[in-house]
Amino acid sequence: MLDVRALASGYQKIPIILGVTFQVADSEFVGILGHNGMGKSTLLKTLVGQLPATGGAVRFTGTDVTRAPSHKRARLGLGYVPQGRQIFPGLSVLDNMRMGAASAGLGDDVIDEVIEALPRLKPILGRAGGVLSGGEQQILALARCLCGRPKLILLDEPTEGIQPSIIDEIIDILLALKTRHRLTVVLVEQNLEFIRRLSDRVLIIQKGRITGEIPPDHLHDDALVAEFVGMSAH
Ligand SMILES: Nc1ncnc2c1ncn2[C@@H]1O[C@H](COP(=O)(O)OP(=O)(O)OP(=O)(O)O)[C@@H](O)[C@H]1O
C-alpha cells in the first residue's frame, strides 16, 4: 500500500527527515513512536505532499507520488488528519463533512455512511465545529477525512489534549474501520497505550530516522521502551 524509501525533507535549508524507509501493507496499522521534535509531523507532511521531498521516493498503491501534489495523493486514497485537527470552526459539523466529500470529488451519500460509523456526530450535525470539545473535534476531523473514502489515513497525534473516554472511543472506531473496510493507518504518537492498542507494528523515530521496531506488547515494559525511545510507559 505504501512504500517509503530513503525519504528526506526539511524546512528551507534545515534537513529534518534524514532518509526514512518503511513499508505498510494493505489493512495494516503502523505506529510511529517518538519524542517531541523527532520529526513525526514533518514525516507525515512530506508523505501527504505538504512539504517537498528533497530525496528518496514514495509509492502509494503502486504509483510513484514522490513529486505529486497533495490533491493528487488524496484522489488516490491518501487521507490525512493533521495534528491540531484543523477543522473549519465556523462551519457546522455537517458542512465540515461536506467539505471532506467535495474535496475528494464525492457526493453527499458518503456522509451517511460515515455518520453510521461515528454515531456520536449524529446529534451535533448542526453545531459549529469551533464549539465542539477537543475530543469531538478529533472525531470530526477523522469523519471529514473518511468522507474522502481514503484507503490509508495518516494520523498525527490524535490523542493530544483529549480525555481518556474519547481516546477509547477513537480506538474502537479505528479498529472497526480496519475490520469492516480494510482501512490502513499510519499513526504518529507519543501516547504509548494508544499506539499499543492500535498498532500491528511500532517503528521508532529518532532525529529524523527510523531507528528500530518494537513489538506493541513490549510497550508495557518500561525498561525496553526507555532503551528504544528514551520514553517511560508511566
Ligand atoms: N515550519 C517549520 N519551520 C522550521 N522548522 C520546523 C518547522 N516545523 C517543525 N520544525 C522543526 O522540525 C523538527 C521536527 O518537528 P516535528 O513537528 O516534525 O516533530 P514531532 O516529532 O512531530 O514533534 P511534536 O510531537 O512536538 O509534534 C523540530 O526541530 C522543529 O523545530
What would you note in describing this structure?
This protein has 234 residues and is of the alpha/beta class. Helices cover 35% and strands 26% of the residues. It has two domains: 1-77 and 152-158 and 184-234, Rossmann fold; 78-150, no CATH class. It has eight helices and ten strands. The strands form two sheets. It has a six-stranded mixed sheet, with helices on both faces. Strands 2-1-4-5 form a four-stranded antiparallel sheet, covered by helices on one side. Helix 3 (93-103) runs parallel beside helix 5. The two termini are 34 Å apart. Residues 11, 14, 16, 34, 36-42, 83 line the site of adenosine-5'-triphosphate (ATP).
Summary keywords:
binds adenosine-5'-triphosphate; alpha/beta; 6-stranded mixed beta sheet; 234 residues; globular; Rossmann fold
Reported CATH architecture of the largest domain: 3-Layer(aba) Sandwich
Share of helix among residues? 25-40%
- Described by the principal axes of the CA atoms, the overall outline is globular
Q: Which segments are poorly predicted (pLDDT under 50) over 5 or more consecutive residues?
A: none
CATH superfamily of the largest domain: P-loop containing nucleotide triphosphate hydrolases
Task: Output the number of helix runs.
Answer: 8
Overall domain count: 2
Strand arrangement within the widest β-sheet reads: 6-7-8-3-9-10
- The count of DSSP E runs of length 2 or more, i.e. the number of strands, is 10
Report the span from N to C terminus.
Answer: 34 Å
